[in-house]
Amino acid sequence: MFDKTSLLKGTIIFILAVFITAGVTFFSLGLLERSTPTSRSGQELVTKKAPSFTGVDLYGNEVSLKDYTENNLVILNFWASWCPPCREETPGMERIWKKYKNSDVVLIGVNVQDSLEDTESYVDEFKITFPIVMDMDGSISIDYGVTGLPVTFLLNSEGRIVDRWVGAISERRLESWILNR
After folding, report:
1. Phi then psi for 64, rounded to 5 degrees?
2. Could you tell me the end-to-end alpha-carbon distance of the chain, in angstroms, rounded to an integer?
3. What residues does 73 pair with on adjacent strands?
4. 14 and 58 share a domain?
């Protein structure tokens, strides 16, 4: 006959086997994936034609993406004045813009839902000279699948999104995008 110790050991082994099997199953099905919606910002657009948009700059002038994409490499950066990683990446973006603006590289900043006053203050603080488009209603961000800031897209000369970066992008990565196109 079975004694209580043998029965207890058998029960423990059975329970452990169930937990191990469940863990392996969850892992193999990818249910333990830790990626967040923010990390997937714009992911589904890579390799697709960039959504066209027309917005206004800080001076009320109309800015259309199609005016920049033909025969140019376009770096499209979504940012906001209250975003710490955006503040971190902005000086490098400005340096890249100054270095490549007279070539076939265009850098466009898309400000996401800031007030005009906050945007102007940010532009003054960082001495930004690259074009800024105001996305006051968030429609451009929605079209690009932006769920967190900053997000930067690289568009080739045919207007296709060939890469994207979520979070503060380094000056080195921007330069790599430009040189390795």
Report:
1. -120, 135
2. 75
3. 105
4. no
Strand partners, 74: 106, 155
Same domain, 47 and 136: yes
Q: Could you tell me if 144 and 83 lie in one domain? A: yes
71 is in which domain, residue-wise? Answer: 38-179
Whole-Å CA distances, 23 to 18, 19, 27, 31, 33: 9, 6, 6, 10, 13
Whether residues 75 and 98 share a domain: the answer is yes
Is 153 within 8 Å of 79 (Cβ atoms)?
Answer: no
pLDDT, one tens digit for every residue, the chain (181 residues): 557 776 677 677 767 766 676 555 555 555 444 455 555 666 677 779 999 999 999 999 999 999 999 899 999 999 999 999 999 999 999 999 999 999 999 999 999 999 999 999 999 999 999 999 999 999 999 999 999 999 999 999 999 999 999 999 999 999 999 999 8
> Do 8 and 90 have their domain in common?
no
Residue with tokens 């800024």: 132
How many angstroms separate the CA atoms of 49 and 68, rounded?
Answer: 14
CA distances from residue 48 to 2, 43, 141, 159 in whole angstroms, order as listed: 66, 10, 16, 9
The predicted model scores a pTM of 0.78
In the structure encoding, which two tokens stand for residue 13, read together? 């082994």
Lookup: tokens for 120: 């102007």
